Amino acid sequence: MAELPLYPIKFTPILKEKIWGGSKLGKLLNKDTTATNIGESWEISDVKGDTSIVCNGPLKGKSLKELQEQFKAKLIGVKNYDTFGNKFPLLIKFIDAKQDLSIQLHPNDELAAKRHDSFGKTEMWYVLQADNDSNLIVGFNQKVTPETYLEHLESKTLTKILNFDTVSVGDTYFIEVGRVHAIGAGVMVAEIQQTSDITYRVYDWDRVDAEGNERELHNDLAIDAINFNMPDNFRVNYNKTQNTANPMVSCPYFTTNYIEVTQPLEKSNTKDSFFIYMCVEGSATITVNNSTETLNKGETILLPAAIKTYNIDAKKATLLEVYV
């Protein structure tokens, strides 16, 4: 097996135009775009047809798929390689909703494998910015049965039974498969999720595109995928102790910690996993051996599993730390 260069790896963001997208990813996160309808920046992706390309260091120009196939467990860890093989397990995004996203949900692993040859899509959101009174839709505001759900869907009164949460910076949500949800207008989030692009839209606010066409809905598929018995445990409470990893979400698919860095940190990787850092505020440097990369707000970096020690330094930066 080839020797893996050990340094902090950056990728060229994959920018996605969306009917609901805006301009914040360019204005607030310095993404390279002049378009005004960019809804998503895919920071690290192994989705078929949208594979991230390295933009720095000795591996520049190589795709994430190539790295996975060439370096295997050195890139993602022994346990992860035994589980996922040459499929990178996470999709990392920034999302800007200028308009409301469709009301949607994602299938679980079993349904996604059977119907789409895909992973399911468990995900989490961290709110980076929110306009006044903007909100997220997560779950229902009352006990709902499949029958009452379909009644509201058919009469276009679905919003009456949905839970709306007004949000601000730092609010964090864990979105399990089967939970109805939507990002509201004016909200920008960091999203960490399984590698999957399977979404079932159930209502899209009756909007149309420039040609007057409505987007496809997936209600026949969705009714079997909705979990009507989920507890209201989607809001994530976490500490913000400086210069330490504060647990946010830990599930079978990923673990995410919150780190506010104000001094040099020496880090050790004891998890048999790659580590991802998303900078959601400020600027930090990450040093591996003699290789240093700056991580600015809106940037994401991948540290291969073979890196066992590294340093993070910042006067003030907020990072999301992710591993599997």
The first-to-last residue Cα distance is 23 Å
Average predicted confidence as pLDDT: 96
The main pleated sheet reads as: 8 strands, antiparallel
The number of helical runs is: 7
Over all CA atoms, what is the radius of gyration?
20 Å
In terms of DSSP E residues, the strand content is 35-45%
Question: What's this, in brief?
Answer:
The protein is mainly β and 324 residues long.
Secondary structure topology:
Elements: E1 14-22, H1 24-27, E2 38-44, E3 46-47, E4 50-51, H2 64-71, H3 73-76, H4 78-84, E5 90-97, E6 103-105, H5 109-116, E7 123-130, E8 135-140, H6 146-154, E9 162-166, E10 172-175, E11 181-183, E12 187-194, E13 200-203, H7 219-225, E14 246-250, E15 255-261, E16 265-268, E17 275-288, E18 291-296, E19 300-303, E20 309-313, E21 317-323
Antiparallel strand pairs: 1-2, 2-5, 3-4, 5-12, 6-13, 7-10, 7-12, 8-9, 8-11, 14-15, 15-21, 16-20, 17-18, 17-19, 17-20, 17-21
Tell me about this structure.
15% of the residues lie in helices and 37% in strands. It is mainly β and 324 residues long. Strands 14, 15, 16, 17, 18, 19, 20 and 21 form an 8-stranded antiparallel β-sheet that branches. The protein has a 6-stranded antiparallel β-sheet with strand order 1-2-5-12-7-10. Strands 9-8-11 form a 3-stranded antiparallel β-sheet, with no helix packed on it. A hairpin with a 4-residue loop joins β14 and β15. It is globular and about 60 Å long.
